[in-house]
Amino acid sequence: MSNSHTAVAEKPHVLPDGLFVMVWAALLVLTAITVGGSVFFPGKVGILVAMIVTPIKATLILMYFMHLKYEKKAFTIMFLVAVGILSVFIGLTLFDYLLR
Amino acid sequence: MAHSNAAATGAYGTTGSYLNTPAGGGLKSWLTTVDHKKIGLMYASAMFTFFLVGMSLGFLIRLELLEPGTQFVSARAYNSIFTLHGVIMIFLFIVPGIPAILGNFILPLQLGADDVAMPRLNLASWYVYMTGAVMALASLVTGGGFADTGWTFYAPYSLNTNTNVSLAVLAAFVLGFSSIMTGMNFITTIHRLRAPGMGFFRMPLFCWALYATSWIQVIATPVIGITLLLVVMERTLGIGFFDPARGGDPILYQHLFWIYSHPVVYVMVLPAMGIISEILPAFSRRTIFGYKAIAISSMAIAVVGYLVWGHHMFTAGMSDTARWVFSLLTFFVAIPTGVKVFNWIATLYRGSIEIRVPLLYAVGWIFLFSIGGLTGLANGALSTDIHLHDTAYIVGHFHYTMFGGAAIGMFAGLHYWWPKIWGRMYNEKVATTAWVLIMVGFNLTYFPMLILGIKGMPRRYQDYLPQFHDLNFLSTIGSWILVAGLLTMIINLIRGARSGSPAPDNPWGSTTLEWQTTSPPPLLNFATPPEVTTGPYDFTEILRQNNVEAGK
Amino acid sequence: MSSDISHAIDQAPGHVVHTDPETGKTGMWLFLFTELLLFGGLFLIYGVYRSMNEGAFHHAAAELNVAMGVTNTIVLLTSSLTMVMAVSALQRNQVKRSLGFLTGTLLLSATFLVIKFFEWSAKYHHGIFPGKDHLHELPHGEGLFFNLYFMMTGLHGIHVVIGMIVMTVVLFKIRSGALAADNHGMLEYTGLYWHLVDLVWIFLLPLFYLTT
């Protein structure tokens, strides 16, 4: 039975703290890039930078801080389904507003 | 799959009836239980109480429409009555109905588990449900009386009306939480607690249906949650999101509302489809035709269901492109639904059909739901919808799908699993009479509405033009027969549970795991944990036993 | 499973408890999806009104304090770091270290709220607050922008407060030994929740502060 995994309690996958510090540093750098983009290139370029960098930041948090990279594939798939459906909601609604 | 109940060693919770475990517990043992079976029954008692209230309100609506002009309900009161009828039936009965009652009771049994994955969360969801229900009822007597907006709470009227919309809306928000908790619990249970040997594609189809349903509950419900909160914010702080006077767009409210409320019609109907997929093989002694197709079509319906909400808003003022795109997508829903219907019919074909009460309800369901589905295609087409929108046709259509689709499916399931739940049989003759009354009353009540709508009678009015009198009269007569049938059914079920003849463990000769334990099951469901070696609808063993008995 | 059943029954009658880390994690992620969609509804509204009021949104965003927004981003990112280190410390059975990092996370989240409070009260004094007259007198697009700002950062702020309450409970549970290396689930789930709160903020920063 699937819950018999309990008997063989797996040792949790513990990542080294150094890795987390590196991810954190990367997040700060990326934040700086976003802010820099909007301060020095206000308007289209700044927004474009934010639109590219922000999802990268989110991915870093999801993969390392939230361990998604080290969980079963099913978790990633479920997450992508949830995000996908949210994008469908937003996308189809904008279909109405942008084409009025 | 076979195991003997006599092997029970008498460890705590593996023998006796869950109803008597712990012995002599009284009311407190129910209110503090984490047993999925008792929680299911607690949901059942609450929901059927609300169902009776909602039914009485519907009866009242029909009575008012018996003749043109005002009978005994003022136009203002009429607005509140149909809103309350809608809110009770949708939020308190039909949306949580099958998952919370039958899903809770049957899902762990069908998976061969001893409970749901998170039993305490399960109990909590019942209390959250009751809190929401109490809030909804409290909004009746507080503020400016119950909301008169219709169950959809459309802006901008819901922002301005003096009735107590805020509390009603918060009640719906709280009820959404309960729905989410149940959904999370079921997904986790299906992922983690299937019996050894039961892969995803050996799960009974009811479990597949609940799986698809739960995903809709988890993903769609939060959207209505935030939307309803914003309505409250709008009423108290005037944030202007849905208020044209402040630059907001009321149509955006409709978008957000239907982003949830369209997928949620599949929360109502998918579990019913799952029940039908259980009953048909059991009573035709034949494995279900196209198992994988039915399982996958459940998921397909759940996915496509997210893409079509705009068809509720064809006349609201969306862009033309959005309108035809939503119309096109709507027709795609018919494909997985059609796959299911054809597979069900193919299951019956050349089966050795035994006509018993659950099968009657199941076949009645297919009939009613087919009318509901086909009349829905007329709404899904842009041009006809312009004519039919906001008429009695819509009322007829969604009663065929929600009442005919979801509620009749639930009744089918109750008649199918009743002997398992209580260990007692109901009176089959009375149940058949109730079925005839319900089917006749149902069609007499709702079919005239379809015609009335095509002739141009608008919905949600307390009065109508004299030329609509005949059909309205007929519809009201139908509602009397329908109510008589429903009451007969409910009384018969209760009497069966109390004093019916003892039911065997497997009265219908079904194959899924819940029939392999005792009726009623012990607290932990199985004396010996089951193992699965075949698909869910393998009748070889049942047919062999039948032959042996026939040979005796 | 029979061994499961025997150890799964509390002495209290009728209680079945599954202590399966994978089950808890699945439930927690499903809960996070509901949070995602809850905020998602507001992101949708933002998207629609931004597309209708591009100019007004740019104009209104200029009135937000970028320095405060960025400072809060750094505070929150750092709190995520201390949180994840608190989890791995407990997994390695370093209880004191874990308590230290968790306390740090709590202090950082309090800092976040303090900064947020100053931001909000500055706006409040200028009459920019939901329900205040001045906000209603602004052009429609700007009114919508500020109302969205307060609704979204407000909902986010409520999540920060709830997170702090849960963290406090977890803190006491670790101290009392109720949570430990072999039973760290609740801390891990709190961490997941906290990272989601961080994740939402990461999107709020460019949407409100950097759209000028």
Question: Please, could you describe this protein's structure?
Answer:
The complex is a heterotrimer of chains A (100), B (552) and C (212). With 100 residues, chain A is an all-alpha fold. In chain A, helix 1 runs antiparallel to helix 2. Chain B has a single domain, classed as Cytochrome c oxidase-like, subunit I domain (Cytochrome C Oxidase, Chain A, Up-down Bundle), CATH 1.20.210. Chain B is built from 16 helices and no strands. Chain B is globular. Chain C is 81% helix and 0% strand. Chain C is built from eight helices and no strands. Chain C starts with a helix and ends with a helix. The chains are: A mainly alpha (100), B mainly alpha (552), C mainly alpha (212). At the A-C interface, helix 1, helix 2 and helix 3 of A face helix 2, helix 4 and helix 8 of C.
CATH topology of chain B: Cytochrome C Oxidase, Chain A
What is the assigned CATH homologous superfamily of chain B? Cytochrome c oxidase-like, subunit I domain
Unreliable stretches of chain B: 1-9
Kindly estimate the percentage of residues of chain A that lie in beta strands according to DSSP. under 5%
How many separate structural domains of chain B? 1
Distance between the termini of chain B: 25 Å
Shape of chain A: flat
- Low-confidence stretches of chain A are 1-10
Q: What is the general shape of chain B?
A: globular
CATH class of chain B: Mainly Alpha
* SS class of chain A: mainly alpha
Largest sheet of chain A: none
Biggest interface between chains: B-C, 56 and 48 residues
Mean pLDDT across all residues of chain A, rounded? 87
Euclidean distance between termini CA atoms of chain A: 54 Å
Compressed to H and E, one letter per element, the order of chain B equals: HHHHHHHHHHHHHHHH
Number of helices of chain B: 16
